[in-house]
Protein: RagB/SusD family nutrient uptake outer membrane protein
Organism: Niabella digestorum
Amino acid sequence: MEKIKTLLAILCLTLGASCSSFLDTEPEDFLSPEFFYQNESQIHTALVGVYNKLSDTRDGAPLYASAYFTFMGTEGDDGFYRKGPESALPGQFMYNPSAPHVANLWRALYEGINLANVLLEKLDDADMDDRKREIVRGETLFLRAYYYFLLVSNYGDVPLKLTSSTTPYNTDMERTPSHIVYQQITEDMERAYDLVESATEVGFGGRVNKSAVAGILARVYLYWAGEPLKDHSKYKNARDWAYKVIQSGEHALNPSFEDVFVKLAADAYDIKESIWEVEFYGNRTDRPRQAGMLGNYIGIVSNNDSIGRSNGNIWASGRLYNLYKPGDLRRDWTIAPYRFNPTESTNREYFAATQIWTRYAGKYRREKEVFFPKSVGYTPINFPLLRYSDVLLMFAEADNEVNGGPTPEAIKYFNMVRRRGFGFPFSEADLQVPNPVSDLTNDEKSDKLSFLEAIQDERSRELAFECLRKYDLIRWGIYISSMKALSNLYLTSTTPSTPSTQARNVATALGMISDRHKLLPIPTHEMMLNRKLVQNPGW
């Protein structure tokens, strides 16, 4: 089965993946839908179109090619967009319902949903092997559900549409309550789990597999269990789905935290750790033209072509820097310990120990790319959507909630992640011998709340800059207080140094957060098109 990135060139010639709206009825291609979807080749090309929304670089690159990990404010208190403050920027709470990033995200997700709906409606009529048909059905159901998951996470109640759009008329649809959207998401994903191949069978991270489905289901159920819905019964579902991934025996932590991200930059798959990732490839000088901005918009500032040019738009926060304990190797990979000075050179200037406020997010480093020549703006670095360490921490969190406190199993999986962070062995045998440097302290595992707080900090250390922190803070009910605390930290701190004026200006904007920012506003354009939409509170 060909990898997704090798099919993207075909997609542009057949499906017309550049539709301007999910309500468009006139195809912008050579084959209209009634003459497409007829055989296995066409079905797989259509499936690539559904995947492609994850990596789309058009119209503001609203998802994992650019905007979602920079402009959208998805890092919470782990880091922030360093420029500005800038108007219309969700990451600095200076935007309104007309902001382009707000509208682009909504549009792209519904475009993906509509492509999935069309494929599901046409699939049974295609001339192809039945087993392959069911695999495609599973992937498509999962992707549709994932796009709805991103919608409900960002906008709250959203119209739930499970059929394709065939007319530009009768577009008025009421917002569906979030719990019903979550119910549809989980039904689709659970059905997909039975249909898709295992991670070992797929063999690479760019395609949906059983472990990806199970792991994302654990995430979905954790969000459902937390704020704003607070259906605590879903913690058991989250634990059980995370455990399916663990029990599969197909996954393990890479002994080197750094190597996880070196592989993403080098297009080298590690299906044991990196369970699902968004594929990028090349330098946009030839087909397939599917490079993204990871390493550029979020990376270490550079104007050197051999290193790879980077705007370095995201600073890691001083809060995140201080969160790492001495000896934790993750800190100096997640937060770059150096800069290139001058930026045109390859000379690394290492920061002084007191310089903690304006270091660049360092997980995605263009110097590790292996595709040459390097593009000025675009990169082939893949984006991690689900890693095994996340699954272990999700299990520990859900298990803690289900049992009213940490169990030996939850502590074991937590300590595996933390030991890897310090570079210590973490096998079952190794874990039998306590390690006071890395392992949970007695205070951290003394009760349910203490263990939850340890998990909250550990998720920050392990998963920073992977588009998870903001949503974790929201579901824990601490988003507003955490962002205000970050703002206050930058505005008042004088030790170990005083944050720069630029950092304090951004911090002032971050302090403007209010309850309305727990959700994005419904885009103005959509409110004009759909008269049944009601705006989110405060907007």
About this structure: The CA atoms of residues 3 and 128 lie 19 Å apart. Residues 130-155 form the longest helix (26 residues). The beta strands are 79-81, 274-278, 314-316, 338-340, 348-350, 383-387.
